[in-house]
Amino acid sequence: MPGESPQPMTGAQSLVKSLERMGVEVIFGIPGGSILPAYDPLFDSKIRHILVRHEQGAGHAAEGYAQATGRVGVCIATSGPGATNLVTAIADAYMDSVPMVAITGQVASKAIGTDAFQEADIRGITFPITKHSFLITDPAEIPHAIAAAFHLAKTGRPGPVLVDIAKDALAGPTEYVWPEELDLPGYRPVSKPHGKQIREAARLIGQAKRPVIYLGGGVNRARAWEALAEFVEITKMPVVTTLMARGAFPDSHPLNYGMPGMHGTVAAVGAMQRSDLLIALGARFDDRVTGKLDTFAPEAKIIHADIDPAEISKNRMADVPIVGDLGEVLAELNAALREEAHGDIGDWVRFLDGLRKRYLPTEYPAMEDGLLSPEYVIKRLGELVGPEATYVAGVGQHQMWAAHLLPHERPARFFNSGGAGTMGYCVPAAMGAKVGRPDDVVWGIDGDGCFQMTNQELVTCFLEGIPIKIAVMNNRSLGMVRQWQTLFYGERYSNTNLKSHLVPDFPKLAEAMGAVGLRAETVEEVDEVIAKAMEINDRPVVVEFVVHKDAMVWPMVPAGTSNDQIKIARDLAPDWSGEEDL
């Protein structure tokens, strides 16, 4: 505060006081030698520290917390392996634009560069996967670094920021002075869009005959859902929602045609390929959406709105580039479009309605040998639990089925690792989401491969009173990789077979970690175990569903091919009848 007198304290006390000043409520982490000075004042702080079982879990938990709350997630680790164990989660947060501050201890400043015990150049290691990073050797710099880190993490395009602090800077004396203003040369994110670009976008929208709104995860980061709903109401344009935008616009809305891309719906892929105008909002034209880039949406003009100017025209040249916060972009577009006449796109919408009706999956019976269909399990879970819950998915086949089959009706209710595709994300991210939303039901949907990477955080959940629920799709294999081996490698299943579903015995493993363990192997048992899991709210629950290993995610666009090559089954392409009338 202005006029505040300097207060003598240690660097560690300055760190904790700075975190309190930023409004931090919870930190996920593990102590160790270099960060230990910070843990002493943390002992007396009102900040809740959650002691995880692995630093990667701390990072993913901070991500889940940030996505659930819209606040900056915080994780903390010691130097060397403690810091490097955070790298995967930092990279994940960077790819998916999750606001996170990672605090790491570093060896004493005089030992930096000497290969001292547990030394790692974590600032250098994470340079490509952070918005910014700080190495603090002077305790007087701690308040400014923390204030700047939080500002950088949550403004502009959100992302992770690293603050690496030498042990002697934590232990040494300093005078605490909070910065009255931040001096960040060169950092000036633009939030207000240029009026000329808004007017040009409105003109193109008014002329389009086959427009599509292409929603990316940026709409969630901007929390621009109300402005988006108004935009669709004004324009009556079809919408496709990427993996990171599922729920930002409700699936039940007649203009939502689902998820585009490699495992997208036929209607969403067809809409983008045949569009004459794509309005990309907070999307980055990722290869999983575009397929072979030079064949993507060949007749479409592009309006590309994003907070990050580096994304615009990076992969596909924009006809109308708009830099700005999506909330402000949509507000100004809405104001401009209220005065514009819109073309007739009725035939276009009817064509897409026909595709959706023909190719939207509706039921998934048990597989031929009596094992459960994983699609049926996930769809049934969504029906019984409902759209009010928060869902967190791992990575692989179950992630794609969850993206298609859960009831995505509300924004920021479905979290997963999109850009990095990080196996092991689910359990700790679900833990962080539950901490951020203690009154929500939080279900994780994981695969047996993913679950075995980070399930130790169930111990944390039990000891910390975080009653998440995890559904494990156990197909005894690395399912998505197996699917590729089936389709493209002559059914040569090299090192994707996880063998017997009894090793490990997931219910027993869950019980050993303080959770309740359940199992379903038949259709009749599915509703029963889900209902039982929903009744247990005083500890974590793990439900193992023993499912068929040969279930495949369809539709699918083979990697490196055009989206026009989409398949709805192994040797079956969609029928595009009606296209000639557009």
What can you tell me about this protein's structure?
By secondary structure, the chain is an alpha/beta fold. The protein has 3 domains: 7-176, Rossmann fold, CATH 3.40.50.970; 195-359, Rossmann fold; 374-546, 3-Layer(aba) Sandwich (Rossmann fold), CATH 3.40.50. Helix content is 36%, strand content 16%. It has 23 helices and 19 strands. The strands form 4 sheets. The protein has a 6-stranded parallel sheet, sandwiched between helices. Strand 11 (277-281), helix 13 and strand 12 (301-306) form a beta-alpha-beta unit. Helix 12 packs antiparallel against helix 15 (346-359).
List the helices and strands and how they pair.
Elements: E1 7-10, H1 11-21, E2 26-29, H2 36-42, E3 48-51, H3 55-69, E4 73-77, H4 81-84, H5 87-95, E5 100-106, H6 122-125, E6 132-136, H7 142-154, E7 160-166, H8 167-171, E8 173-176, H9 195-207, E9 211-215, H10 218-221, H11 225-235, E10 239-241, H12 266-273, E11 277-281, H13 287-290, E12 301-306, E13 320-323, H14 326-337, H15 346-359, H16 374-385, E14 390-393, H17 397-405, E15 414-415, H18 426-436, E16 442-447, H19 448-454, H20 457-464, E17 469-474, H21 479-488, H22 506-512, E18 516-520, H23 523-535, E19 541-546
Parallel strand pairs: 2-3, 2-4, 4-5, 5-7, 6-7, 9-10, 9-11, 11-12, 12-13, 14-15, 14-16, 16-17, 17-19, 18-19
Antiparallel strand pairs: 1-8
Helix pairs in contact: 1-2, 1-7, 3-5, 3-18, 9-14, 11-14, 12-15, 16-17, 16-23
